[in-house]
Design goal:
With 101 residues, the chain is an alpha+beta fold. It contains 2 helices and 6 strands, in the order βαββββαβ. A 4-stranded antiparallel beta sheet has the order 2-5-1-6, with helices on one face. A two-stranded antiparallel sheet has the order 3-4. A hairpin with a 2-residue loop joins strand 3 and strand 4. Helix 1 packs across helix 2. The termini are close together. The model has no long low-confidence stretch (mean pLDDT 87).
């Protein structure tokens, strides 16, 4: 079915995914998938020849555009880039969706 849905993507330091998702739920996000990932940013460290990358969690949710906007505002207010959670969000268009209502 054709869709005006968005894929909301929230990248957050590991350990904050549940708190971030709880905040997003307050504005209408119904469910999400969380992936454990690693980030490679400007602070790339190496100790004894072993590279240490920052652990991140990637939260994906398919939501309507209005909910995506509300979730991004709510999450960045409380867990934004200048907090220990270091969360940032973005959306991508979803052309078609099946299996959700």
């Amino acid at each position: 079915m054709e869709s005006n849905m968005k894929m909301l993507q929230m990248i957050v330091n590991t350990g904050y995914a549940d708190e971030v998702l709880n905040e997003a739920r307050k504005v209408g996000v119904k469910g999400a998938t969380i992936f454990n990932t690693r980030g490679e940013g400007m602070r790339h460290e190496s100790i004894l020849g072993i590279t240490i990358d920052t652990e991140k969690d990637l939260i994906l949710a398919i939501v309507d555009e209005a909910t995506a906007e509300k979730a991004m505002a709510a999450v960045t207010d409380k867990f934004g880039i200048k907090t220990p959670a270091h969360c940032f969000c973005f959306t991508c268009s979803v052309d078609k969706v099946v299996g959700i209502t």
